[in-house]
Every structure is written in structure tokens, then in C-alpha cells.
């Protein structure tokens, strides 16, 4: 049984770069998975986890059954920034406070309320959950200042398995390797081009680009294409990035990781550890957890995308 997460102590000395790594090694990857995940995502690799989870969500839009629903809701056409903010903040609240904490339970209620409105297959839900485990593993192994330890890999699996169960996701594979095999098989079968992929993917690239000054926005789209594997890129209908751009992006990320080896350990978590943490573009005045989440489905949405109860107005 998972234990309620204990408060994470501050690193005692700026020169002790391996402090958190030793602490992780002293914990149990199953029983202490919440604390390990919080250290890994909030102290050791906050930038890498943020970028890799962005890429993980983005790559799920390569699946036509997922992109078609998102396209039908219109969220990406009118509220792309809000949808991004809400997703990031809800997941950060759960990680920072624990899935069984008051804020964690409130965040999960918001997530379940959103998903409960729509007809989403169990396989699609399992697949999206799997990307949260394995895309960060792949990213950090390539670009992080060190590779993830086995404790961190297993803790991420156990953490998201418990989050998934609280989201009502059934039949989550029981081991790290089995869940990875499910993800790989799902992608082989389901990742393929669709017009809805292209629309949702294009809107997401536009969102990423909007975070940069106008003169460099075209480079943002190029950078995204440089990070995608061929299967994902083709599923979006994106042109290949030039070889020089792929090399430049990869070298920049590797260089960033090497530079971080020289930095002191973080004394405070970068997760949403308190209500006064920095806000996101869609919430310049801050946010309340209960207010996060997609708007109710539009009245003119095709009922095929709605759960029967939601379509009847009883959800």
C-alpha cells in the first residue's frame, strides 16, 4: 500500500549535488513512490519533466481517436492556453501534495469530471497514462544531467498507476515492463495520420510558438518537429525538420544537461507546492483547484462524443 507522502526536507549544502540521489536510493520505489516522484520531478529534473510531459501530451494527439475528440470539443481552437494551463496545474497539484491529500483529491475530482463527460475508450486512457511514465524516462535518459535510476523509473510507474486507478482507469498493466510493452504495441497499431491530428497538432504548435517573441516563433515550430520521431511526425502530417535543426536541438539539450551537473541541488521543489506558487499565462491572478478544467461540452457537439449520462444531462 502506498504511504502518505512525508514532507521532503531541504538539501543541507549547496555543494552536495548528489544529496537527492542518495535520498532516493534510501527509499522504497513502491512504498515511497510519491516522495521519490516528487523529488525527481520537483528537485532533480523540473525543467526536463515539464518539457517531456508537454511532449508526451502532444504525441497523444497522433492517435485519431484522441485527436478527433479534442477537435470536436473545440478546446484547442478557442482555449488552447487554458487547456494547457489546467492540465499542467492539475497534474502538478497531485504530484506536489499527494493524490490522497485534500488538494490532490480535489484535482482528481476535476480531472474525473472533465473525462466523465466524454466517451473515451479504456485503451486511450491507459495509453495517455503510459506516456506520462515513459516519455519523461526517454527524455531524461537522452537530455537530463544524469540518467534516471531504477528507483525513479519504478516510482514513476507506481505513482501513475495509483493516479490512474483513482481516475477509474481499468486494467493498468501490473509491471513497469508490461506497461512499456502496452505503450509500444498501442502506438504501432493506432498512431497514424488523420486530419484531426493535423488540426489539433497545428493548434498546439501555434500555442507553443505564442510563448516566444514574434520574430522567433517560426523556430518554435521547427524545434517541435526536430524533437518528434518519424512515426509521430508523419501522423501529424508535418514535414521533416532539416538535419541541421535536429542536430542543433539535440546538441543544445545535451549541453543544457551537462551545464546542470555544475548547479547546486534545489532546496525547494518546482512543483505547485503551495497556493502562492507562480501562475501560468491563463491565470495571471492565481487559480483555485476547483476552477481548473475544460468548459462543459458545447450544445452543438455531436452526441457521439458524449457519455450517455452526460448527453442526458445527468452527469
From TrEMBL:
Keywords: Oxidoreductase. Residues 72-253 form the ER-bound oxygenase mpaB/mpaB'/Rubber oxygenase catalytic domain. Its EC number is 1.-.-.-. InterPro entries: MPAB, MPAB/Lcp_cat_dom. This is Oxygenase MpaB family protein. GO terms for molecular function: oxidoreductase activity.
Amino acid at each position: 500500500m502506498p504511504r502518505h507522502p512525508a514532507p521532503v526536507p531541504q538539501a543541507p549544502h549547496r555543494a552536495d549535488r548528489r544529496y537527492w540521489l542518495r535520498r532516493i536510493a534510501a527509499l522504497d520505489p513502491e512504498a515511497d513512490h510519491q516522495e521519490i516522484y516528487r523529488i525527481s520531478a520537483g528537485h532533480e529534473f523540473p525543467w526536463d519533466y515539464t518539457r517531456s510531459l508537454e511532449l508526451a501530451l502532444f504525441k497523444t494527439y497522433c492517435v485519431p481517436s484522441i485527436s478527433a475528440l479534442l477537435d470536436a470539443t473545440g478546446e484547442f481552437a478557442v482555449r488552447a492556453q487554458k487547456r494547457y494551463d489546467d492540465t499542467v496545474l492539475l497534474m502538478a497539484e497531485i504530484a506536489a501534495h499527494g493524490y490522497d491529500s485534500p488538494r490532490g483529491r480535489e484535482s482528481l475530482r476535476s480531472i474525473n469530471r472533465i473525462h466523465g463527460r466524454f466517451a473515451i475508450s479504456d485503451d486511450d486512457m491507459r495509453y495517455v497514462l503510459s506516456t506520462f511514465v515513459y516519455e519523461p524516462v526517454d527524455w531524461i535518459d537522452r537530455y537530463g544531467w544524469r540518467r534516471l535510476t531504477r528507483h525513479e523509473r519504478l516510482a514513476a510507474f507506481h505513482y501513475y498507476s495509483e493516479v490512474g486507478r483513482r481516475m477509474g482507469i481499468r486494467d493498468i498493466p501490473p509491471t513497469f515492463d508490461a506497461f512499456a510493452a502496452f505503450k509500444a504495441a498501442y502506438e504501432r497499431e493506432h498512431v497514424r495520420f488523420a486530419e484531426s491530428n493535423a488540426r489539433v497538432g497545428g493548434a498546439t504548435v501555434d500555442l507553443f510558438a505564442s510563448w516566444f517573441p514574434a520574430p522567433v516563433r517560426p523556430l518554435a515550430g521547427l524545434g517541435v518537429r526536430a524533437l518528434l520521431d518519424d512515426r509521430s511526425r508523419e501522423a501529424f502530417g508535418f514535414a521533416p525538420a532539416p538535419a541541421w535543426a535536429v542536430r542543433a536541438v539535440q546538441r543544445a539539450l545535451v549541453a543544457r544537461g551537462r551545464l546542470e551537473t555544475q548547479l547546486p541541488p534545489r532546496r525547494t521543489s518546482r512543483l505547485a507546492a503551495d497556493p502562492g506558487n507562480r501562475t501560468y499565462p491563463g491565470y495571471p491572478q492565481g487559480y483555485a483547484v476547483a476552477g481548473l478544467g475544460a468548459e462543459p461540452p458545447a450544445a452543438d457537439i455531436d452526441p457521439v462524443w458524449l457519455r450517455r449520462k452526460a448527453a442526458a444531462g445527468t452527469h
